[in-house]
Amino acid sequence: MDSIILLTVLVVIFALAFDFINGFHDTANAIATSVSTRALSPKVAVMMAAVMNFIGAITFTGVAKAITKDIVDPFALENGSVVILAALIAAIIWNLVTWYFGIPSSSSHAIIGSIAGAAIAAAGFSILNYGGFLKILEALLLSPFIAIAMGFIVMSLFKVIFKKAHLYKTNKGIRYLQICTAAIQSFTHGTNDAQKAMGIMTMALIAAGWQTGDDIQTWVRIAAATAMGLGTSIGGYKIIKTVGGKIMKLRPINGAAADLASASIIFGATLIHLPVSTTHVISSSIMGVGAAQRVKAVKWGVARKIVMTWIITMPTSAALAAICYFILNLIF
Length: 332
Hints:
81% of the residues lie in helices and 0% in strands. It is mostly helical. Helix 2 runs antiparallel to helix 8, helix 4 runs antiparallel to helix 12 (300-331) and helix 10 packs across helix 11 (278-293).
């Protein structure tokens, strides 16, 4: 009983740490365009994102429930607390490594890959809930392509709407619009990304026998939202530089188009209870916006490196989680 209590407490601590790291790791994606176009100063953008992330995080729970039950069945998972703790440690390691090198990797891919890897290490491939897991994988894989298309469409519409507008006046006006789109972007980030830690903590409570359903408890929602808000307030300026400037040279009209495109996709995924990668969606929206303006405007070499990181994140985090599980299993 003592080891179950210890493991559950450790899971909650590491889940909140994951949300905190997710906050400063992925906040950059939500505010990168507004900072890069000087619509907002980094300090103001980060604080606004922290508040909007918190509000978004406590508003919805559908994605949290999907994380709780769609990857593996927490009620069928033996040694579940060790599995969840191993997954969290692996995801945190991967997030910190990619943050250190300024790579806009996906926290969503990292945690989902880690849960799957640790669960497989514990109980074999049969433990996966293939219906739910494949649905989540489809959302993660398709959302970047949808984001590219949406970014292209929104930017194409903007080009038609502002065709005869004076460039200086248009950019000045759109900077004000970007403040709104950055706030919306941060809100939608909270509605989707903070949910993942809530789902993990709920899995731990079920594994410990302290909860019998998949409802997200109020204290879990507030704790996860607060951790993400605090992490957001730290900011992630290395990733702002990559997302906001290295994919393409952004003007206010490009930033607003990318924000609107990505926020609509992230919020749409939240409404249908599917986790998506805010990193993937925002970066892909910028690529779509750049392609609508001029295909050569997109620095495809940087984009290619980002895509390679997307591809390797899930298998790498799964392998890390399996290793962490075997080590933790020896200890506990």
